[in-house]
Design a protein that fits this description.
The protein has 203 residues and is an alpha+beta fold. It has 2 domains: 136 residues, OB fold (Dihydrolipoamide Acetyltransferase, E2P) (Beta Barrel); 52 residues. A 5-stranded antiparallel beta sheet has the order 3-2-1-4-5, covered by helices on one side. A hairpin with an 8-residue loop joins β4 and β5. α8 runs antiparallel to α9, α8 crosses α10 and α9 packs across α10. It is globular, with a radius of gyration of 19 Å. 24% of the residues are buried. Keywords: ATP-binding, Cytoplasm, DNA damage, DNA recombination, DNA repair, DNA-binding, Helicase, Hydrolase, Nucleotide-binding.
Length: 203
Amino acid sequence: MIGYLEGTLLKKEGDRILLLANQVGYEVLLPVFVMETLRTKSIGEKISLYIFHQQTERQPKPVLIGFNLEVEKEFFQHFISVEAIGAMKAVKALDISVREIARAIEAKDVQKLKQLKGIGERTARKIIATLEGKMDKFALIRKAEKAKMPVEEDAAKQVMDVLVGQLGYRVSDAKRMIAAAMQRNSAITTSEELFEEVYRSEK
């Protein structure tokens, strides 16, 4: 059973990453609030994650779900104890921090819980009925600090990696394309926006 991984970030895509640890590449699913904390991490950087490892008779293929803190993993185990919430549904639902969800549960805030992806009123009430009174510890998780590194710098690095490593451009050409795109649109903050701007100019 895998409970913790430490290694090199090989790939980021959608709701998952590829993590190289001891010469093995592990595909790890990440809830949105965890993926957000990796926005400033570049390919090749070292990261560490606490892992919830799921493998059942109905789902024999192992699924690894990653968290920054052990207490977040513990919350996840509470969350999936609620009837009708499995691990995969929970990964998609957790699109705000554990701290906020825990506070909403203790406050019996059905409307806040309904904002979670895939959670309707009936399920929100089940969450409160099952977990109310057990969330104090999770409501005290320290608020995540804003990333120090500018998002656009990280976006440029990611787009550079794609242009050079995957699409075959020379480094000098890729730098020129990225600089021109950012000059045309100074509001760019993500790699997706930057890539779209680069693509638009090269059509």
